[in-house]
Input
Amino acid sequence: MDFGAMMFSTDYSIRPDDLAKMLEDRGFESMWVPEHTHIPADRTSPWPGGPDLPKDYWHTYDPFVALTAAAGATKDLKLGTGICLMIERDPITTAKEIASLDMLSRGRFIFGIGGGWNAEEMRDHGTNYKRRWRILRENILAMKEIWTKDEAEFHGDHVSFDKMWAYPKPVQRPHPPILMGGDGPTTFDRVVEYCDGWMPIGGRGSAGPSLAEKIVLLKRQAEDAGRDPDSLNITSFGLRPDPDLVGRMRDAGVDRVIFTLPSQERAEVTPLIDECAKLIS
Output
């Protein structure tokens, strides 16, 4: 099992390049950053994490800028978005950003995506909240065309372009791995259709099936669709450094766990990084 760490990389926390070097030196496999372009001051959408939204959410760096800085400070550390809000992005521009990052990092990028929860933020980008999943699907399918075709062309309800030339292409072929975040009733449909893995939030209890049972269901659905179920990566996101929890993730069939780090300076965050590093095996 691989181990990574996620931080809301902000203008007041440790620099992303410094964090990346610390993680690589301690044996972490990957570093992850989330994305919010802004947070509307007049917001009614409830934050899934509780009543008070942390200020981290409106102080984040652009994820691709932060990960490019991290790439320049490391050699082997994988670099992931957790998650990228593609429902707020232009697919042509973002396809180039990702291909550029993948090339400059020599093939180390992982593309974590999701639908998001902040309807007001999406509205500022011209995105209809109720249509976000259909928009996300077309964005990803269109980006795959750009990454894999010499002359890419795509025509959908939300994304449409005639034949184009767009380089560079990603180092990873056919493209960087795409992991779908979330745990909704139709999440597995999206994973099986156009993703390379699933990225649930680990450690969240529910009255429904366990994580191990859900992984079995996902792989069965993938096999029924003609996909190799073992090709799907399972990344459990947002864990605390709890040995028992990590053990349960391993027993459930998780391929990668991602620890959450607070948005703090080096002195404050170093002890927690060291605590997480003790669980790497």
About this structure: The mean pLDDT is 96. The longest strand covers residues 78-84.
